[in-house]
């Protein structure tokens, strides 16, 4: 009887041991899956909330860092989407392929090789330096460079203040002047020809 009892106890211990092993394996698999989800999760920077209607505006921006050779256009396009602040940043170079803002990787929107690198980035701070990273391929081997951007809240104004918008207005005015001048010249020439055309003499 004692031997039989000992055998049953040993079998119970074996079952408990197997259950424990499977439990540890299951916990390990769950941890791996959770880690994979965390690593694959897309990091997104949180833009500031602004008290403005959704749309496009202009904002002044300054930049420090790097070698000082690269610059960004200022004023630049300031976007408000769902009450959140974004900026469409245009570089003076076409060699930047991505930027990183608060861990979020943002790709160059301009696919034209001869065009300037352009990025729509979240604005995470006004009137203070906002740290960003930009990757450049200008030296052959891609490498990341740290910059600091400062967006000035009191400079926000209508989109018409942008240099490209001003250039568009100049082109429109120039086109109107050219077309108007051409039309006026046509009528002046027509009037001149009519006034100086010799009249045919009629015989008596």
UniProtKB/TrEMBL annotation:
Q: Which InterPro entries is this protein grouped with?
A: NEAT_dom_sf (IPR037250)
Q: Does the keyword Transmembrane apply?
A: yes
Looking at the keywords, is Transmembrane present? yes
Q: Could you list this entry's UniProt keywords, alphabetically sorted.
A: Membrane, Transmembrane, Transmembrane helix
Q: Indicate the transmembrane segments per the record.
A: 170-189
| The protein's name | Iron transport-associated domain protein
Q: Which organism is it from?
A: Eubacterium ramulus ATCC 29099
């Amino acid at each position: 009887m004692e031997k039989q009892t000992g055998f049953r106890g040993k079998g119970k211990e074996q079952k408990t041991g197997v259950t424990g092993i499977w439990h540890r394996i299951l916990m390990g698999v769950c941890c791996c899956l959770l880690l994979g989800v965390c690593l694959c999760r897309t990091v997104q920077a949180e833009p500031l909330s602004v008290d403005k209607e959704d749309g496009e505006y202009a904002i002044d921006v300054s930049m420090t860092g790097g070698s000082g050779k690269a610059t960004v256009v200022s004023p630049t396009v300031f976007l408000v989407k769902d009450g959140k602040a974004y900026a469409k940043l245009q570089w003076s170079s076409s060699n930047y392929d991505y930027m990183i803002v608060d861990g979020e990787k943002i790709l160059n929107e301009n696919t034209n090789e001869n065009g300037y690198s352009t990025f729509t980035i979240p604005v995470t701070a006004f009137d203070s330096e906002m740290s960003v990273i930009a990757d450049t391929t200008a030296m052959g081997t891609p490498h990341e460079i740290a910059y600091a951007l400062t967006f000035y809240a009191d400079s926000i104004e209508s989109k018409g203040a942008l240099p490209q918008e001003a250039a568009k207005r100049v082109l429109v005015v120039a086109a109107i002047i050219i077309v108007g001048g051409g039309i006026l010249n046509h009528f002046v020439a027509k009037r001149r020809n009519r006034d100086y055309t010799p009249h045919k003499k009629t015989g008596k």
